[in-house]
Amino acid sequence: MDLSQWIAQHARHTPDKAALHFEGRDIGYAALAGWIDEIAVGLVSRGIGPGKVVGWLGSNSPAMLATLFACARLGAIFMPLNWRLAPPEHQALLRADPPALLVVDVPFVAASAAASIAPPTTACMALGNPVPAGWQRWDDLPGRGLLPAAAGNADAPLLLCYTSGSTGRAKGVLLTQRALQCNAANSVDMHGLVPDDRVLTTLPLFHVGGLNIQTLPALQAGCTVTLHAKFDADDTFDAIEQQRITLTVLVPAQLDAMLAHPRWAGADLGSLRMISTGSTQVPMRIIQAVHARGVPLVQVWGATETAPIAACLHADEALRKAGSTGRAARHGALRIVGADGRDQPSGRPGEVLARGDNLMSGYWHDPEASANALAGGWFHSGDLGHLDDEGFLYIDGRLKDMIISGGENVSPAEVEALLLEHPQVAEAVVVGRADERWGEVVVAVIVPQPGATLTRGQLIALCEGRIARFKHPKDVLFVDTMPRTALGKVRKDDVRRLVADAAAPSGVTPTTKERMA
Predict the structure, then answer these.
(1) What CATH number is associated with residue 484?
(2) 48 φ/ψ angles, rounded to the nearest 5 degrees
(3) Is residue 113 part of a domain?
(4) What whole-number distance in Å separates Cα of residue 273 and Cα of residue 276?
(5) Predicted TM-score (pTM) of this structure
(6) Digits of tens for pLDDT over the chain (517 positions)?
(7) Residue 418 lies in a domain
(8) At 109, which CATH number?
(9) Domain termination site, one of 148, 164, 186
(10) Among the three residues 113, 148, 183, which one is the final residue of a domain in this structure?
């Protein structure tokens, strides 16, 4: 069956049960199923069918989820866009892979400039009020008409999510309905999901973490999902206490905000069975602080390419295996391989490989990258890790240069290319620096042109409006030369050490202060 049948089945058996709770109102399973059918009819009227792409730019909303299920009904592809990106970044995605239809939340219409950057072949519609002049209303889609026969099947592509690559070019990860079904089964096993669970979603649905770790699996299991448009610590505490939430996903940056909040010590967390976390390495201080409140903190490991649950802990393992990301997911397998491609014994690090029906079918329009990433039927993650003698995975670092800041991927190559546009920059190397709140922050190391009078502020200003703020360098170091190998290649490990050693308590290095003077 296609994913929309998850909702239809619950509509038949528990029609009045709340599927979604959003902004103070409940949407029952029967109402959600009817809404999905209405959207499917409307999409067909706009020429959307098997293989057609529907783009979505907006905060978390029931309409977003209903449209994804409608795409599943039609065999279409749903493409959620990261609203944190800058207009040029949206333009690059939309021009490279034009969707047939782009839906934009009214608050993002001006910021995204979607109508002006979308290709002429893309129809643009606005969700919400007031609808800007010249825009078509999403709510005006005809909801009545003949509903076509279900076109979705297990091997039909459904979800197209973009992830930053080490080359600086975002890659579209294509996930089939089978991959999402397998991931949901992994989640049900990981969380012990039952229909009585009440799930809170605060992570953005444009990430597989927000969409697939709990949200879609909870709807498959017949749970009630409380959906927040965006994360807010106070609202999260309110939901946990008032809605008696049993499960939620919070990445380390969100957990840090919760831990720093005055309500943390006294909040009623008694309803929580566990909190799931991941997206980056989780500091032990966070693990200990959550366990001290009597709530198991359960880690998950994976990537957009794995939908994302490839390894996970269970609640009864969370304390005993604190720091581990768990064993292979129920319907998958893991390997640790050395540079020679051979399996490593327990305790010895190597690249983490994953296999299962939850893997992507490939990168959108990039067969070469797909073949490399899925060589031998395994996803080659680029992460460095090891297994203990019980098969529990520990992530030791990354083979790739990717920076993960607050759960967001940052490609150093992308930021470097932008910094090199400044005429006074001779060389730019971007690396991550460990940060207690964000996991990592972006730091730029710059070799100025001879006689240049560069300042940190000038380089930060260069990024403004060009790339998302989480990609902006939080610190800038100026050096005379880059450390290089005998063949002239920049030694990034030495650059990282330089950045770590130069960090001052103020967050600004002495070198930077001198340049800013």
Answers:
(1) 3.30.300.30
(2) -85, 125
(3) yes
(4) 10
(5) 0.86
(6) 789 999 999 999 999 999 999 999 999 999 999 999 999 999 999 999 999 999 999 999 999 999 999 999 999 999 999 998 888 888 888 887 789 999 999 988 876 556 666 778 888 899 998 887 778 899 888 887 778 777 768 999 999 999 864 445 679 999 999 999 999 999 999 999 999 999 999 999 999 999 999 999 999 999 999 999 999 999 999 999 999 999 999 998 899 899 999 999 999 999 999 999 987 778 888 999 999 999 999 999 999 999 999 999 999 999 999 999 999 999 999 999 998 999 999 999 899 999 999 999 999 999 999 999 999 999 999 988 999 999 999 988 777 778 889 988 888 888 998 998 899 998 999 999 999 889 999 999 999 999 999 999 999 999 999 999 999 999 999 999 999 865 467 888 899 999 999 885 544 433 433 332 2
(7) yes
(8) 3.40.50.980
(9) 148
(10) 148
Radius of gyration of the chain (CA): 23
End-to-end CA distance of the chain: 65
Sheet holding 53-57, edge to edge: 136-137, 123-127, 101-105, 53-57, 77-81, 157-163, 171-176, 362-363
Instruction: Please indicate, yes or no, if residue 439 is contained in any of the structural domains.
Output: yes
Q: Tell me the residue range of the domain where 138 lies.
A: 1-7+29-148
335: which strand partners? 353
Spell out the residues 6+ positions from residue 327 whose beta carbon is closer than 8 angstroms to its own: 311, 312, 313, 334, 390, 391, 392, 393
Q: By the 8 A CB rule, do 148 and 43 touch?
A: no
Answer yes or no: is 94 within a domain.
Answer: yes
**Domains held by the chain: number:** 2
Give the list of residues 6+ apart from residue 514 with CB closer than 8 angstroms, or none: none
